[in-house]
Amino acid sequence: MRPTGPAAAALAALAAAGALSGCGFGGSERPTITDNDRLVIGVKEDQPGLGVKDPDGTYEGFDVDVATYIAGELGVPPERIEFTTTDSSVREDALAEGRVDMIVATYSITAARKREVTFAGPYYVAHQDTLVRPGLPGIDGVRDLAGRRICAVRGSNSWRRVIEEREVAAVPVPHWTYGACMNALARGGLDAVSTDDLILAGFAASYRSARIINDPFTDEKYGVGVRKGDLEGCAAVNRAITRMYQDGTAERLLRAWFGGSGLELTTSVPQFEGCT
Ligand code: GLU
What we know:
Elements: H1 5-21, E1 39-43, E2 46-47, E3 51-53, E4 59-60, H2 62-73, E5 81-85, H3 91-96, E6 102-103, H4 111-114, E7 117-126, E8 128-132, E9 149-153, H5 158-165, E10 171-175, H6 178-187, E11 192-196, H7 197-204, E12 211-212, E13 220-227, H8 231-246, H9 249-258
Parallel strand pairs: 1-5, 1-6, 9-10
Antiparallel strand pairs: 2-3, 3-4, 6-13, 7-13, 8-11, 8-12
Helix pairs in contact: 2-8
The structure holds glutamic acid (GLU).
Residues 88, 105-108, 153, 156-158, 195-196, 220 line the site of glutamic acid.
């Protein structure tokens, strides 16, 4: 006898949903970036060496190249990638709302962010350091930032590392991007910008008078953000990152973008965090 009544209707609805999504009851019904034939990828637009939007609208930098490599490994060629700007303040929402499929934007893996985002990687481990306004003496370590005006980029973790984690009583001055921080520093509106050494190295090339104090005090594990729960996509990105190191691409890109910076570059594959 065929089942009838509400239970049968519910079964039929479930079966239809399974058929429509093409994955039946046994398969994964969660969307994954491994199914994408196009990718919208969030990067930075004003961080030299990492993510810069050129006047013609194209993007360039280490993060852009890493993202392009990963997309290629996922079967998406450059002409089917759309890059878009994701400032630090919008990264979690951009993923949750589906405005981007993936983020490669100096995006540190942190416990708080892991609650909202699934992170592949890290694809690189940077370290927080501090760049000081030209001519300002007496700042040789993070503790010397007490009473000094530091840039507080909205949505970024760097100023929190100083004020909340290290409990150094610096004065946070809010800005939207690290590019804005550097402009403020150049105008004398800030005493220091404390953030990842890769970011500072990129800026230091154009702000030669500013001084990096060379007192790294954190590990910033740069992750590839995907929508929360896309574990299949995360695993595929991790395979791509492993290959990027094994085939020499990571070393080539690091040297191309940061070879002249004086930074000690790590060219072995980082320890992955695990996809959660
Ligand atoms: N990596 C740090 C972070 O994710 C600073 C750079 C940034 O905000 O993009 O908070």
